[in-house]
Amino acid sequence: MKYNLITxxxxxxxxxxxxxVQLAYKFNGEIISADSRQVYIGMDIGTGKDLADYFIDxxxxxxxxxxxxxxxEEFDLYKFTSHFHKAYNEVKRNKKIPxxxxxxxxxxxxxLSNYNLTDVDFNSLRAKELSKLDNDSLRKILAxxxxxxxxxxxxxxxxxxIRAILIEESETQKTNPSNKIHSLVIGVYLDRDEIKERITxxxxxxxxxxxxxxxxxxxxxxxxxxxxxxxxxxxxxxSLFLQxxxxxxxxxxKLNSAIxxxxxxxxxxxxxxxxxxxxxxxxxxxxxxQAKELIEKEYLGKx
Length: 303
Known about the structure:
Layout: E1 5-9, H1 16-26, E2 29-33, E3 55-56, E4 59-60, E5 63-64, H2 77-93, E6 97-102, H3 105-112, H4 125-131, H5 135-145, H6 158-170, E7 183-189, H7 192-208, H8 211-220, H9 225-231, H10 233-242, H11 248-275, E8 281-284, H12 288-299
Parallel strand pairs: 1-6, 1-7, 2-5, 2-6, 7-8
Antiparallel strand pairs: 3-4
Helix pairs in contact: 2-3, 4-6, 5-6, 7-11, 8-10, 9-10, 10-11
């Protein structure tokens, strides 16, 4: 078989998860999430888990890498790739088609480009050497080493800067050929104005239906404001609001703008992946019929 994975990617708010679930239902598949925040338990509204979307005709499409870790714990690229391959092998054992779905560019690319990552060892000699340096010196090392900056929080906290350097320095592009991923990649996009409109509408709904209360509950469970800042977007700005650092209107306006910019950065990531040689079959909107035809032709080899 030419491919052993189907990937549905795209920026936020284009409907890629619902499309993936419909396709998984049609082709007897299971979903593997490639979202850096949906792994966290209790972060539901802000990350857009929308678990009700995984039900079709009273049947729940199995999903993986959602709700697997406490937000008080650490999750990084190495852990993602490790969890992904475990889930992928499980889906294959179930004789189902694996669908990877998400918008986190680094996570997606780590699988599509077959990264082979080494776990971060903070007791290593290199880690101890780095721990003696100040943040500015560490940032300079990271800037030289890093080809794929995941997010700006990598450069804020010392431990995260060191983690990012260790990951970057240990990364290779070599994989075991028997485990190599060959994915059919389907991208979903919309015109920028339509994405903006969808983001704004969705944000209003999330605020109306409990996003602030969700953040309050995370704080009660011991998640710090600093950690909420690290999670970014909804969690960062609601946290600032709850600390009385910004008012409600400022929170809404700044958050809305930040999500628009985030969607733009996601598309930049996908274009970068394309320039590196990955073929993405782009669909305007979550078009089920077009996606179905692509899978039948490219993945299943039907004429």
